[in-house]
Please model this.
Amino acid sequence: MTGRRTRLVPLSVALLLVLAACGPNTESNEPTTGGNEASGAPGASGSATAGGLEASGDIFAFGVSYETSDEIAQGRVDLFNELYPDVNVTFSESGFDSQGFLTALQSDDAPDVVRIPRTRLGTYVARGVLEPLDDCISQAGVDMSIYREAAVDQVTIDGSVYAMPEFFWVTNWLIDNELFEQAGLDPATWDVSNWDEITAANQALLDQTDTLVGVDPKVSDGDRFPNWVAAAGGQMLSEDGTESLLDTPEVAEALEFTKSLIDAQGGHVAFLDARGEAGADFFGPENQFVTDTEGAFPMQQWYLNVLAGDGGQPEITALPFLGTNGDVITYAEGDALAVTSASDNKDAACAFVTTMVSTDAWVAAQQLRVDQSEGVQTGTSTGNREADDEIFGQMVDLSDSPTYEAAVNAFVDTLDSAFAMPPSPAGEEFEQAWQTAVTAVLNGEQEAADALAAADEEAQAAIDSAGQ
Model:
C-alpha cells in the first residue's frame, strides 16, 4: 500500500470543470444514506491515542494533498498509513472546489472523504451529500470535548456532527516594528480597539516612511471582513444560521471604515498594485516585513511559521485583534474532514477523518516538521485543544527567539476566545454574497448600504430555499 497516489481527473471532466466555473453552482439531489457503518473495537481517535477501528480497502480523499503538501499533512497521513495498513488512500492533490467536488460525486468512483472549509459545510449538508458522523464518532471512541467549541459548533447541524474539525486559524495583528518606529509609533502600545488610532497610524506610515502599504485591513480578498464586523459589535449571520444580517449598521460601519483605510492609499486598484509589489515574496526571505514595505495587517497564526522559518525572521510585533469595546474578538477559520454519503467504504473513511485530527496525528506532524527543519518552528494551531496543549506547551521552544515567542503567545492566548461563523444551510452562497458586496464597495461601484442590502436579500433567499 502506498497511501500516496494521486487521483487524476479525466480530460472530459476537467473540461466540464472549466465550463462549470463560468456558471452557478449545480444542485445535487442525492439523498443522505443514513448513519455511518463503521465497525470494530472502540479506539480513542479523538484523545491521546489514535486508531482502533477495523478498516480496509480503498478510499479517495477529495480536496486533500499528500505529495504536494507539507509536513503537517504528510505526518498525519503517515500515521494513518501505519495504523491502517490495509487501507489504500488516494488524493486529489488539490484544494476544495465546489464544481469539482459535485462533479466527482457523480462519477463512477466518487470521493469517500472531502476536506471542506467549515464556513461552507452547511451547503453540502443541505444538499444531502455528506454523512452524519455520530455513529462513526461513537465507534471510533472519539471524545468531542477535546475539540474547540467554536469549531465543533461549525460542524454540528441539527444536533449531528457532519465533519471533524481540522485547523483552527485565528486572526491577529502583525506589525512591522521598523516602519512603526520610523512613523513615530510604538507597536507595543498601538491601540487597535480605537479605529481613529488605526486611521492615524495608516496616515503616519504613508506620510513618514517609504512603505508601499500602510495598514492593510485584509478585506480585499474578503477573508478578514467578519473580524471587523465583530469588532464593530455586529454579526453577519444569526447564531442558528438561518437569518442573514448583512443589512445591519455594524456591517456597514465595518465596510465603510476598512474602505477608508484603502481609499487613503489611493483607492482599491492602486492599493492592490502596491500590496502585490510589497508582498511579491510573501512566503520567502524578501517578504514585506523584511523589506519594510507594509506596515501592519491582521493575519492568521500559520504565517508566523513563514516569517520565523524561511521568511528571514524580521522584527515584528503581534497584537490581539480587539473590538471597539476593548475585548479580544479574533475570528477563527479552518477546514473540516467529512465523509460523503456516496462513499462505498465508510468504515475506512471514518478511520481516516478521525485519525487525521487526533492528538497523535497532530503531534506526529509537528515532530516531523521539527525533524525536517533547521529553522525556528512556531507550531500549528488546530481544532484539537489537547493537541495544541502538547504542541505549544512542550514541542515549541522559542526561548532563543523572544520576538517569535511573544508573537506565538499573543496568538495562543486568543484561541479560547475566538469566534467562528455559524453553520448555515446556504453557507457557500452566503459567503459568495457578502464577498461580492465587499468587492463592489471597495471598487467604488456601489455604496455600502446599497451593496449590503442587495447581498442580504440574495443571501436570505439562498438560505430560505436551501435543501428544498
